[in-house]
Amino acid sequence: MPNASPKDLLRRCAVPLLALLLGGCSTLDYYAHLGQGQWQLLHARQPVERLLDDSATDPDLARRLKLSQQARDFASASLQLPENRSYRLYADLERPFVVWNVFATPEFSLDPELHCFPIAGCVAYRGYYQQGRARGAAALLRQQGLDTYIGGVEAYSTLGWFDDPLLNTMLRWSDERFIAVIFHELAHQQYYLPGDTAFNESFATFVEREGLRQWHAARGETPPASDDRQRQQFIELVLASRERLQQLYASDLPVSDMRAAKHAEFERLRRDYRALRQREWRGQGRYDAWIESPLNNAKLLPFGLYDQWVPAFAALFTREGRDWRAFYAAVAALGRLPEANRRAALEGLMQTN
Fold first, then answer.
1. Which domain holds residue 91?
2. DSSP 222
3. How far is CA 323 from the centre of its chain?
4. What are phi and psi of 108, to 5 degrees?
5. Is the pTM of this model over 0.70?
6. Are the beta carbons of 330 and 318 closer than 8 angstroms?
7. d(CA 304, CA 309)
8. CA-to-CA distance for 327 and 322, rounded, in angstroms?
9. Rounded to a whole number, what is the largest CA-CA distance in the chain?
10. Among 269, 282, 187, residue whose Cα is nearest residue 227
11. Which of 56, 195, 226, 329 has its CA 20 to 30 A from that of 117?
């Protein structure tokens, strides 16, 4: 990063420190990996303005970057999201994902193996900047008898610690999704509650969806046709399977019988999906590859987290007069409640939506 300012140099030095803070009780090798991966990402950043001024910039990239800056301006001016250099920069990492997250559960449980960090709190995964490292970590977990799943991630937020860039990994999305993720990740910078993934992701998902609605309204546009119905039906299918597995794992079946019943449940999930695809989706399913690849407990972990409390946040937004600043203050107030009280408050809001 040529001509770095003192602030930039200080942040360079902060990368290994951040890795230590995020790494918890992991190995020194993992600390080094986190620091190197974050530094490489920061080093690859270029100002979007410079790329837009460069006639050699690919026209399609220039169009997407211009759109991103319009959305970035809207996010701060209209949604009252943080005004900083995040998403005013672009980085081409020359790979399909920025990180690969490894999820793990016991063989007969849907409770994740948690990783607790001072900044982010406890999360249900561990991230790796290199796919090979993620595969190696998953292999070691499987040797311990755990179910594992590796999920590629196109974008993430450093919660305002650094100026997060737009990434080449985001460009394969539609314009709608591209803008949505900018709103979503900035929402994490606006408010983040360590240790409560469902709260954080539901909050950011609400901001993303309401932000998109307001974005289209401000531009006099008709929102594009949504595939939310197919997505919601798929999530409901998976959550129903999770509920049956929960009941199975709470039973006192012998291990061999439970293992057979677990396998049968995943086969039922596949059959139910195929029937739904033919009955409701005219034989066209977005999730064919997911359902036909190996299934286990760990693969089910992400479902429900991004949507669980979205109706509650929608009700809260209405209660606060659809005023973003008042809404964010109310979200922060919820976050200060003890966990049981916070959950009760969210459930109460769900009833009013």
1. 16-98+154-218
2. P
3. 25
4. -120, 50
5. yes
6. no
7. 9
8. 7
9. 68
10. 282
11. 329
Q: Helix 6-23 vs helix 28-43: angle between axes, to the nearest 10 degrees? A: 150
Cα separation, 324 vs 82, in Å, equals: 12
- Give a three-class secondary structure readout of 75-92: HHHCCCCCCCCCCCEEEC
Q: Are 162 and 170 in contact (CB under 8 A)?
A: no
273: tokens are: 């999906």
Helix (H) or strand (E) holding 336: none
- Residue 32 within any structural domain of the chain: yes
Residue 104 lies in a domain: no
Cβ atoms of 71 and 184 closer than 8 Å: no
Considering only CA atoms, which of 82, 45, 1 is closest in space to residue 328? 82
Q: Number of structural domains, the chain?
A: 2
310-319 vs 324-335: helix crossing angle, rounded to 10: 130
Tokens matching residue 15: 């990368």
Residue 145 inside a domain? The answer is no
Is 234 contained in some domain? Answer: no
> Burial of 160 by CB count in 10 Å (0-12 exposed, 13-18 middle, 19+ buried)?
middle
Q: Which two tokens stand for residue 154?
A: 């196109």
User: How many CB atoms sit inside 10 A of residue 122's CB?
Assistant: 14
308-353 pLDDT, tens per residue? 899 999 999 999 999 999 999 999 999 999 999 999 999 999 998 6
Spatial distance between the Cα atoms of 154 and 130, rounded to a whole number of angstroms: 13
Q: 204-213 pLDDT, tens per residue?
A: 999 999 999 9
Q: Tokens 């930039």, residue?
A: 8
What's the per-residue H, E or C state across 229-260?
Answer: HHHHHHHHHHHHHHHHHHHHHCCCCCHHHHHH
